[in-house]
Each structure stands twice: as structure tokens, then as C-alpha cells.
């Protein structure tokens, strides 16, 4: 019996090493940017193999001298998983409409280990977001919740062609959709400001014309992200927009964000600094403590 158990353990080790070697071969053969159906199929085979290995690893640990080899194999599996994540993101722009093995494997999550199944869930969520309309994803839920905004951000970062669809959500009749779209646009702009430079008029004209405070403060943030690449004329228009926003808004978040942006810009613009000082002085008397404190802090820094 002892000999038979030992043979089973050796067989598991051999199978594990062979599987990992095979996965590394598949990854080495996969191009940096897979574009063909055959390449996608190889990726899915690798993904499915990772999940099968996750199921194997859920078995009781083997108590024998080969524990070190299993630990090394575990580390190799981690590295392969990281390469799998990168391949998933590369494949997204080339995914067709049918469900992938990654999506199907989520149904088996009760049998797999945490890491492969977590990756499968992440892959499936991104792939699903690549096909679901943003207007649908951004609706519903509590009015103070961002809902599925992070999924929308992931989908746009994976496929920049959908940025126009996200901008279109600003025209929604649903205030919640507009708020979440503004939040997503600002966060995407942090990552890819070059995508927004050609859309300056959309930001200032389209987005900037929306009177909703939860959109207005995101406009200020996006303009701050874009300032380094603005032309003189664009910066003049952006500054004028922020000045009007600071003068007219009564929303405390809009005021705080706009103060921050203008104070930063005023450090290199004496004319703007001269205009901003009395505005900050006015806001030091605001009844809301957060606004008053921030105005005093920015005023002190401006005078330093």
C-alpha cells in the first residue's frame, strides 16, 4: 500500500511538471499581440489548463520529500498566471461574440483554486463588458454608488474605440448615468490623457455645458490632467471655464476641486493669481467648513 501511494505521488509530480512545461511552451509560441483564431484558441487552451491545475491543487497536500518540487511548481504556476492575465488583455480587442472558455470556466469556480478562478472571473467580467452597452452598465443602484463604473473603465482601457460611446452617456436622461460616466472619463484620462487631447471641445463644450455638479467637478479634474498639452488658446478657454465655475457654483465639491486646479495654475500665471486671490478671500467666509478651510489654505499658499 505504501509503495502504491508513493507511486501516485510521483505520478502527480510528473504530471504537474509536464503540464507546466507544456504551458510555458504554449506561452512562448504566442505572439505579443495575438490576432488570429488559432492564436486565440491556443490562449484558451492555456487558460483551461490553468483551471484544471487549480482543481488538482485543491487536493490534500502530499506529505513526502517532494514538497519542495511542488512549491517550485506553485511559483511557476503564479508566473504563468501573470502571463495569462497579460494575454487576456491583449486578446480583448479581437474577441468575437461567442462565450470564451474563460467565461465558461467561471461556472466551475466551486471546484477550482482561488487564483485561477479569480483570474477567470476577471477575464469573464472584462469580456462581458466588451459587449454590454455602457448606458446599461452605468444605470441602477444607489445614487451615491459608482456601481459598475470600474468595469466600464476596464473595457475602455482595453478598447479605446469605445471612448465615444462613454462620452455619449453624458447625454443620458438619467442623472446617475451622467455622474458615473463623468467619473469613468476622469479616471481614464489619468491613464490615457493623449486620448482626450483631440476631444478638448467635447470636454469643455459638451461635458462642460452640463450643469450637474457631479459632472462639473470631473470637468475640472480632466482639464487639470490635460493642461500640459493644451495650446495657449485652449488654456485660455479652460481657465475662463474654471473661473466661471468658481464664481457661480454652490456645490462644495465643485468649489474645492476648482479651487485646487486654479490655485495650481496660478503659480505660473500672475494674472490668474491676481484674479483668484479675492475669490479665495470670499470663500474663506463660506458657511461650510471644508470650503472655508481650503480657501484659506490656498490663499496662504498664493501669498507665499
Describe what this molecule looks like in 3D.
There is one protein chain. The protein has helices spanning 2-29, 37-57, 67-91, 101-105, 114-129, 134-137, 149-158, 163-168, 175-191, 200-207, 213-226, 232-248, 252-266, 270-283, 289-303. The protein is mainly alpha-helical and 304 residues long. It folds into 2 domains: 2-129, no CATH class; 143-303, Leucine-rich Repeat Variant (Alpha Horseshoe).
The secondary structure category is: mainly alpha
Multimeric state = single chain
Please give the radius of gyration in angstroms. Answer: 26 Å
- Beta-strand content: under 5%
Report the top-level CATH class of the largest domain. Mainly Alpha
Overall pLDDT level: 76
Portion in helices: over 70%
Flag low-confidence runs.
Answer: 1-13, 30-37, 57-65, 93-115
Write out the CATH superfamily name of the largest domain: Leucine-rich Repeat Variant
Q: What does the main sheet amount to?
A: none
| Count of individual domains | 2
User: Do you know the CATH topology of the largest domain?
Assistant: Leucine-rich Repeat Variant
According to DSSP, the number of beta strands is 0
- Principal-axis shape: globular
DSSP helical segment count = 15
Q: Architecture of the largest domain in CATH?
A: Alpha Horseshoe
Amino acid at each position: 500500500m505504501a509503495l502504491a501511494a508513493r507511486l501516485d505521488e510521483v505520478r502527480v509530480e510528473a504530471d504537474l511538471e509536464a503540464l507546466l512545461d507544456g504551458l510555458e511552451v504554449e506561452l512562448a509560441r504566442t505572439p505579443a499581440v495575438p490576432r488570429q483564431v488559432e492564436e486565440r484558441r491556443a490562449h484558451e487552451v492555456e487558460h483551461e489548463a490553468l483551471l484544471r491545475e487549480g482543481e488538482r491543487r485543491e487536493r490534500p497536500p502530499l506529505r513526502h520529500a517532494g514538497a519542495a518540487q511542488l512549491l517550485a511548481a506553485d511559483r511557476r504556476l503564479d508566473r504563468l498566471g501573470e502571463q495569462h492575465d497579460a494575454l487576456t488583455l491583449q486578446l480583448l480587442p479581437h474577441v468575437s461574440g461567442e462565450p470564451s472558455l474563460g467565461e465558461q470556466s467561471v461556472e466551475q469556480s466551486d471546484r477550482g483554486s482561488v487564483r485561477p478562478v479569480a483570474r477567470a472571473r476577471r477575464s469573464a467580467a472584462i469580456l462581458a463588458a466588451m459587449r454590454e452597452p455602457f448606458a446599461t452598465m452605468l444605470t441602477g443602484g444607489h445614487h451615491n454608488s459608482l456601481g459598475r463604473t470600474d468595469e466600464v473603465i476596464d473595457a475602455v482601457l482595453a478598447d479605446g474605440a469605445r471612448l465615444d460611446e462613454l462620452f455619449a452617456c453624458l447625454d443620458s436622461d438619467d442623472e446617475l448615468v451622467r455622474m458615473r460616466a463623468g467619473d469613468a472619463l476622469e479616471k481614464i484620462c489619468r491613464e490615457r490623457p493623449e486620448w482626450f487631447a483631440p476631444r478638448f471641445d467635447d470636454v469643455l463644450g459638451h461635458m462642460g455645458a452640463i450643469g450637474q455638479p457631479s459632472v462639473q467637478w470631473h470637468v475640472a479634474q480632466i482639464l487639470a490632467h490635460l493642461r500640459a498639452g493644451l495650446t495657449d488658446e485652449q488654456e485660455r478657454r479652460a481657465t475662463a471655464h474654471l473661473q466661471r465655475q468658481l464664481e457661480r457654483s454652490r456645490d462644495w465639491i465643485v468649489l474645492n476641486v476648482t479651487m485646487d486646479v486654479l490655485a495650481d495654475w496660478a503659480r505660473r500665471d500672475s494674472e490668474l493669481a491676481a484674479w483668484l486671490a479675492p475669490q479665495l478671500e470670499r470663500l474663506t467666509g463660506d458657511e461650510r467648513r471644508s470650503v472655508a478651510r481650503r480657501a484659506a489654505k490656498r490663499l496662504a499658499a498664493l501669498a507665499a
